Description:
Strand content: 5-15%
Structural class: alpha/beta
Largest sheet: 9 strands, mixed
Strand order of the largest sheet: 1-2-3-5-4-6-7-8-9
Amino acid sequence: MAQENKDSRAVLCFLPTMLMLWVCVCLAASGCQAAALTGRFSSALACADGGPHRGSSRMCASAAIQVRTATVGSATAGTATFSVAVAPATSDVGPPTPPILVIPPIGVGIDRTICGPLLEAWTREPRTSALHCADVIGMGDSTKRPMSAPPLRPREWAEQLMGYAKSLGQPVIVVGQSNLCTVALEMVALQNESQPESADAQPTLAALVLVGPPAIEAISAQKSDEEINKVWRVVSSPLGALLFRFARRRRFLESFSKKNLFADPSQVDGDYLDICTRGAQETATRHAVFSFVSGTWRNDYRPLLAQLELPVLVVSGRDVKASGGTSQDKGKRVDRTSTLNLLKWFGKRGGRFEQVGRDLGADPTKKLDEWASAMPNARVETRLTSGWNVLVYEIPVELSRLLDAYAYKVKQFCE
């Protein structure tokens, strides 16, 4: 509460200068060149039954859940570390099925610890797959980027996680959740671009699962570097620092999550808010969060989807209650993120952010049909579930069983 009051006072003190800062920053020129994390990869077990970073009680409540520290690096980007929480397979219940790598959503204070309920659900029933939930660079325990660095892009996160997937020594089912489904798609693109080491070499990815992905329309247009830089110049400025301090307040996080992320507002509980507020205390995560906000994930993925031949499972929540587009949006541009719109929205103190609904789509059944149609060469399955936008937290038991059953199918596909 003391930190929240401090953040509130800081924001209020600077409100008179926010507009002036915005004008000054928008006049500044900046280059935006992505730096890739490629090359060598190593992974080591950091703790077997201890808690995760920030002392979250839900994350490692089960002694079966492990937290690994992994390293990825290259000559150009240097080295970076990140954490992966792992619920091992139960080896005595049947033949092993492919390991599952979950990419959690990204947001203020949201990192791999949001997958705590899913990991717990995984350990409560016999499993033949191990479940891995990873931090992306810039979030959680991972190495952070300074705000002076260019914004992170999905390809960089994909290179990070592709290295980890290869280290597991067998084909992996990659699961993208919500806004970071594009990272999973970039991992598929990396696999398509790479040359196999030998004719009988196994692929790194066995299958793709997209949980609560954006609507096809939201990933059908390329956002230009110029448009990305316009937003980035603001969010990487002192004004952006103030906005982040405002957004990490518990009251703001609660209001935003209830109105934009969860189908059932009662699920925005103390445990969830503890995860978010602890994660947001480290202001260096602002770089990764605002990289997403600036729109680096907005690419035209339709050509990749048309060529995709992997088994694919697309899962969407059916409970469009927290936010959603309207019929009035028809024919309008999906991405309307701008500096002015962001400032107006922050002025609402965590009100409904219509951009979330435009990106997710207002008709889950239609969205699943459009995803299936976009992948004519893939073996596509779709599922409607309860929940809305944070399914790893909203429906951990249902999702764990869905992933477990799909791992068996993928094993059969690969035989």
